[in-house]
Amino acid sequence: MPELPEVEALADHLRRHATGLTVGRVDVAALSVLKTFDPPPTALHGLTVTGANRWGKYLGLQAGDLHLITHLSRAGWLRWSDKLSGVPLRPGGKSPIALRVHLGTPGDAPGFDLTEAGTQKRLAVWLVDDPMKVPQIASLGPDALSLSLDGLTAILKGNTGRIKTVITDQRTIAGIGNAYSDEILHVAKISPFATSSRLSEPQLGHLYDAMISVLTDAVTRSVGQGAATLKGEKRSGLRVHARTGMPCPICGDTVREVSFTDKSFQYCPTCQTGGKILADRRMSKLLK
After folding, report:
1. 211, 176 in Cβ contact below 8 A?
2. Which residues form the FPG-type domain (predicted)?
3. What pairing do the DSSP bridges indicate for beta strands 97-102 and 111-116?
4. How far apart are CA 231 and CA 60, in angstroms?
5. Could you give the residue ranges of the DSSP H alpha helices within the chain?
6. Of 114, 138, 162, which closes a domain?
7. Per residue of the chain (288 residues), what is the pLDDT tens digit?
8. What whole-number distance in Å separates Cα of residue 15 and Cα of residue 13?
9. Which end is more exposed in the chain, N or C (fewer Cβ atoms within 10 Å of the end residue's Cβ)?
10. CA distances (Å), 200 to each of 153, 203, 271, in order?
11. In the Cβ-directed half-sphere of 212, how many Cα atoms lie within 13 Å?
């Protein structure tokens, strides 16, 4: 799933390549991705792109007074092309393309596709005149990179949830997902199952420093990359996430995994849990 660094890089790509161009046509191949219907996508036709924005993990293209906003969810992506095909998309087809935006005369202009792989279709698109009309954006917590140490401390104070769950709750802190939360907690040397309100003052400082450094480094590495190379860039910078069974780059211990029904996370026992192996939720259920 694209998180804060990748979405910021996609917004930067659109700012540099789409700003100043005119929306020639919007093709919708999967009507289910549209979460708003007034104004319709055709309202974008003829409008000049004035910029691109990010709200947490939400990406928006601004044209005139309208914002075309998307949440790419787990398997969605933005694919840029310097010359898109002008052939209209067929609604209901088997193509992974859900929506296409032509920036100029279709067939002779650049643009981008919003695509989604797999069978679970969760990609969502809104067209609004105010981003706050997207309920999920209106309910976002503060952006992870906008927080101060005092702000983070205030958020976690009195919160009895597990730290992994808390920092990935978009209503609490916006922008952090499964992958970067693993990386942040590894750098901070904090167990994913630690209770948020019980973190000591030094641990809070380590967590804050890790959050800012991990996300800032990822943004620096991602911005300027082409949309096609962002996924590979993200994977190359991960130290524990999706590296189950591999040695921890800090201490050499084996990276472990906790699995749930539809997701998993990774951690280093030596660095984060004092050597304790956390219970694998999926395996625990099988043994009952």
Report:
1. yes
2. 239-273
3. antiparallel
4. 19
5. 4-17, 135-138, 149-156, 163-167, 178-188, 201-222, 230-236, 269-272, 281-287
6. 138
7. 899 999 999 999 999 999 999 999 999 999 999 999 999 999 999 999 999 999 999 999 999 999 999 999 989 999 999 999 999 998 877 889 999 999 999 999 999 999 998 878 899 999 999 999 999 999 999 999 999 999 999 999 989 999 999 999 999 999 999 999 999 999 999 999 999 999 999 999 999 999 999 999 999 999 988 777 887 888 888 999 999 999 999 999 999 999 987 789 999 999 999 999 998 765 444 333
8. 5
9. C
10. 10, 5, 17
11. 11
Going by C-alpha positions, the residue among 236, 235, 269, 265 that lies closest to residue 252 is: 269
Same structural domain, 123 and 160: no
User: Domain check: are 272 and 149 in the same one?
Assistant: yes
Distance CA 120, CA 116 (A): 9
For residue 162, what are the β-bridge partners? 195
List the domain range (segments joined by +) for residue 263.
144-287
Q: What is the CATH number of the domain that holds 21?
A: 3.20.190.10
Looking at the structure, tell me whether residues 125 and 148 fall in a common domain.
Answer: no
Instruction: Tell me, yes or no, whether 202 and 89 share the same domain.
Output: no
- Are 73 and 184 in a shared domain? no
Q: How far apart are CA 134 and CA 206, in angstroms?
A: 34
Can you tell me the distance from the alpha carbon of 74 to that of 59, in angstroms, rounded to the nearest whole number?
14
Single-letter amino acid, residue 132: M
Distance (Å) of CA 188 to CA 82, 136, 156, 207: 41, 29, 15, 5
Quote the pTM value: 0.93
Q: How many domains, the chain? A: 2
